[in-house]
Amino acid sequence: MNTKKVCNQFSISPKALRIYEDLDIIVPNREENNYRNYNEENILKLRQLILLKEMGIPLKNIKELLAKKFDEYKIIHGLDLQLKAVDNKINELKNIKNTLEQSVNEALNSDRVTDYSDYFNKIDRCLSGNKEKRSNWMDKWGFDSWATNYDDSIKANVGGDLNLFENYDLVLEGVSKLVSKHKAEKVIDIGCGTGNLYGKTGQNVEYTGVDQSVEMLLKARVKYPNIKLRLGNFLEEPFIKNEFDVVTSTFAFHHLNFVEKQKAINLLMGYLKIGGTIIIADLMFLNNKERLKEKEYLIQKGREDLWGIIEDEYYTDIEEMKKYAQQLGYKVKYSHIANFTWMLEICCKEGLM
Ligand SMILES: C[S@@+](CC[C@H](N)C(=O)[O-])C[C@H]1O[C@@H](n2cnc3c(N)ncnc32)[C@H](O)[C@@H]1O
Q: CA 247 to CA 274: how far, in whole Å?
């Protein structure tokens, strides 16, 4: 296909084609008269390039993505990176929108303003907050990097100073047993990581694993080629409503603060059929008294460093969560399984088993 036809077909300019050629992304063969001739492979690549460009991916990254033969891992990774960039941009714009809204509302409700420095200070704070977040958005959770050695590190951590993953396999088996007890057919597992719960449960039920880390999901896929996966977040609107018998989550809930946990419970309920149950196995304290007891114990032992590790995350306060869930009319059941790990069941309407 000659340059003119290609330009017409894709509504692009000859100049754009020249740039892709100069960058060594799409290099057509030359006819005897030196005219360009785009073959099928060039056309396919051009289509992919245009689509990726529409998604906002820079040309240098597109070049990498389309180089050599199709590399699925690279493509997923590249798209995920762009997804994070878009997500970040949306958050920045939301932040700007809120600041503007606040300033307008304040102006409407105050006396005549002669000094505008207050507005500008606010805008300055908002923009520097955005800038700061921009510099560390790439792997804000650190889970993408942890994915490579997650399974090994769990084993290595067992018996460690805090022994956070004590009886890890037993915990997952406990969740799996509960899932069977509920006679669940469809299960959604949030924060599924490398798919270890699927290894215990998934084969017997229709399982969907959800995680915000694409690297964790890719690991799960290598281990379990038939696993159904989805990139997602505790705090997003449920992407499928009222379809699941059980929502599970193991060792992930402690990454949400209390307000986020409340929001997550509401959203997770959205996945469930009437009578469905949320089963969370995670690091928790029974109540604040127990939490302070642990703090005192570690500090007396001279292990402030260990208390720092606990404090860095948000172990659920079970009684506080129970109170919240009960206010919403949910039923709550909990039991201690290992060291810091508890099992929490939250059920809507019909009773727990
Ligand atoms: C410690 S790992 C646990 C993985 C797995 N459930 C297990 O039991 O081994 C925590 C997982 O939660 C995921 N995660 C953390 N915060 C999340 C969020 N807000 N939404 C979805 N996944 C999240 C992380 O990406 C990570 O894969």
A: 13
